[in-house]
C-alpha cells in the first residue's frame, strides 16, 4: 500500500524537484483547469450519448446522465464535489439558455384561442401537485411542508429534456407543440409554487417570519427584475440589428449569460430568472425583433455539460430500495395525474393523441434537481433525507424521461424516422 | 370509351369550380409546419362551402369550392372555406397563407401525407414529391361535351402565359430571390408528364392518345398528366393548372372570373386554332411569363413576331367586355386590369415586404394576415 501511494505521488515529487531548478515551472497543479475540465466532461458525455444512440437508438441525454452518474462522487468519484462546484457556472449557463428557450415557447396567444389547452394545463398543474402531495403525506409519511416542497419540485415537466428531445427527434406536429406548451406552462406554475415553498421551509426550520416572507419575495421580485432588465437590453440592442442575423444571436446569448451572472451574484435561482426572461421576450416582442432568432446548435455542447453535471449530482450513494420504490410510486401517481388531466381536458385532438401528450410531458429532471438543491442550501445543517424522494424521482426520470418523451413523439408520427432521414422510400 | 378515363361527365357549360392549395405555417416562426392530417382530424366542418382535403405533404391543405354557375358563388365559397380554415388552424397554432412557394422552407423536412396515392407518388418520384410542396390554383370550367373540353384545352393553351403572369406570387425559393415572378412552375416542370397537351382535335383523339401513353406504361390515370391545361372527364370540365395560389381569395376569384369569361368568349367566337404552331413556342412563352411576369415578351408563331404580354392581356380584357358583362364578371376583370396597370401583383407585393422587413419570416406573416383579412 505504501509502495502504491509512493508510486501515485511520484509525478508530484518529480515535478517539485524539477521546479527547484526550473524557475518557470508553476506549482504542481492540484485542480484541473476549468477549460480542460469542460473538455473532459464534454467528451465523456458525448461518447456515452453517441454510443447509446448509435447502438440502442436511445436519446443521447440518457448517455450524458449515465456518464455523469458513473464519473460522479456517488460511483467512481472521478468528478469530485469540488469539481462539480467548479462546473456549476457552465451548468447554470446551459440550464439558463434552455430555460430561456422554454420561456420563449410560452405561447399565450395560442392559449387564448383554444380553451381546451388552458383546461389541460390547469388540470395538469392541479392534479400533479395534489396527487404527489397526497402520496408524499399518506404513503411516504412526509410532513406537510416537505410534501408540498416535493410536489412543487417534481410536478412540472422538464423543459430542458423536452426541448432537447424534440430537437434531437426533429419532431414537428400537434403532439410536439402541445408537449412544449404544457411543459412551459407547468414550469411557470412550478416556479411560482417553488417560491411559496421557500417560505414554508423557512417557517418549518427557523420558526421566524422574516425569512419566510422576505426570501420568496427576493426570489420572485429579484428574478423578475433581472429578467425584465435583460430582456429589455436584448430587445433594445437586437432591434438595431438585422433580424435572424448572427449579431442578434450573440445579443440573445450575451443577454442571457448576463442574466445568469446577475442571478448568481444575487442568489436568485438561475432557472427561474431565465425562464421569466424568455417569457418576457415572448410576450413583449410585438415587433418580432427576436422572435425568429434561434439559439445556435452549439448550445448542445452546453446541454451535454449540464446533463453530465446533473448526473454527477444525483445522490446514488444514498439510494435504498425503499427510497427507490417510493420514488417509483411518486412517478406513478405523477404520470397518472398528467394522463388523467389531459384526457379529461378534451379538445379537438383525438384522445389517443392527448394521452401521447401526457406521456411526452413525463420527463422530470435538471430543473427539479436544481430546485431541490436550492431548498437544501437554505439550511445545510438540516437532515436532507426529505429531499431524497424528489432527487431519486428525478434520477429515475433522468433515464426514463427522454425515452418516454421520444416514444410519444415517435408514436404520434411526428419524429423524424430513420426512413425519412435516409430518403428510403417504399 | 377507355376504362381508366371513364365517360366524360356532362356538366353545365361555363360552370366554375376552384381548387386552392394553401400553406400551413407555424405561428411561431412562419416556417412551413406539419399539420394537415391533425388539422383535418380535428375539424368540425359540414362541407357547406366545398371540400377541405389533404395534399401531397403535411404542410399543405387543399380547398375546393362547390360547382357554381356564377363567380359570386365562387367568391362566397372561397371566403367561407378561408374563414373555416383560419378558425380551425388558430386552434392548432397554425396560420394559413397563399403564394405559390414558401419563401424559405427546406424541402427535405417535408413529410408525405398518409394515403395510398401519396405513397405511390413518393415511391415513383422520390424527392421530387417533397419538392412538389408548391401551391397552385386550379380553375375548372364546365363543358357541355367532351369535344368542347378538348377544343377548349387547345384554345386556352395560348392564354397560359396570361394566367401565369396574373397569378404570379412565388418570387422566393430556399430563402433567395429567384428573379422569377413565378418560380413554382419550375418545380412542376421536373415531372415527366408536365407541359402542354399535344395538338388533338377531338375527344376520340384524346382517348387514343391516352391509351397510347397507357400502353407504353407511361400513365395509369388522367391524374398522371400534369399538363398546364387538361380535360377532367370525371367532373366534365377543362382545368387550368398554371396559376400560383394568389395571396388573397379575391384575386383567386378574379382569375376564375377571367377563365369563365374567356371560355365563353372562345366558345362564342370559335377562333381558328393553330395548335401545332403554338406548341413550338409554348415552353418559351411560359418561361417568359414565369420569369418576367407582365413584363414578358411573348412569341406569336402565327404572326411571327414578339409582343409584350402586358399589351396582350389588356387587349384581352377589352375583348372580353361583352362576355364578362353577360356573366356578371366585369368588376372582377376590372380588378385584374387595375393590378396589371398598377403593376402590383403578388410577386411584387412579396418583394416589397421583403425589402421593408429585411427578412422572409415577416413576409410570410404579412401574407398570412393578408389571406385572413376580411377584404381578402
Automatic annotation (TrEMBL), chain A:
Gene Ontology CC annotations of this record: membrane
Segments crossing the lipid bilayer: 35-54, 61-81, 116-140, 179-203, 215-237, 249-278, 298-316, 328-346, 387-409
Domain Cation/H+ exchanger transmembrane: 46-393
Alphabetized InterPro entries for the sequence: Cation/H_exchanger_TM (IPR006153), Na+/solute_symporter_sf (IPR038770)
GO molecular function terms noted in the UniProt entry: antiporter activity
The organism of origin for this protein: Azospira restricta
Sorted UniProt keywords: Membrane, Transmembrane, Transmembrane helix
Subcellular location: Membrane
Topology in membrane: Multi-pass membrane protein
Protein name from the UniProt record: Cation:proton antiporter
A Gene Ontology biological process term: proton transmembrane transport
Predominant localisation class: membrane
One Pfam match: Na_H_Exchanger
Automatic annotation (TrEMBL), chain B:
InterPro entries in UniProt: GCL_type2/YbdK_subfam (IPR050141), GCS2 (IPR006336), Gln_synth/guanido_kin_cat_dom (IPR014746), YbdK (IPR011793)
EC category: ligase
Reaction(s) the record says it catalyses: L-cysteine + L-glutamate + ATP = gamma-L-glutamyl-L-cysteine + ADP + phosphate + H(+)
Keyword Nucleotide-binding annotated: yes
Entry GO MF terms: ATP binding; glutamate-cysteine ligase activity
One Pfam family, short name: GCS2
Enzyme Commission number(s) from the entry: 6.3.2.2
Keywords for the protein's UniProt record, in alphabetical order: ATP-binding, Ligase, Nucleotide-binding
UniProt record, GO biological process: modified amino acid biosynthetic process
Family recorded in the similarity comment: Belongs to the glutamate--cysteine ligase type 2 family. YbdK subfamily.
Described purpose of this protein according to its UniProt entry: ATP-dependent carboxylate-amine ligase which exhibits weak glutamate--cysteine ligase activity.
HAMAP family in the record: Glu_cys_ligase_2
The protein, known as: Putative glutamate--cysteine ligase 2
Provenance organism: Azospira restricta
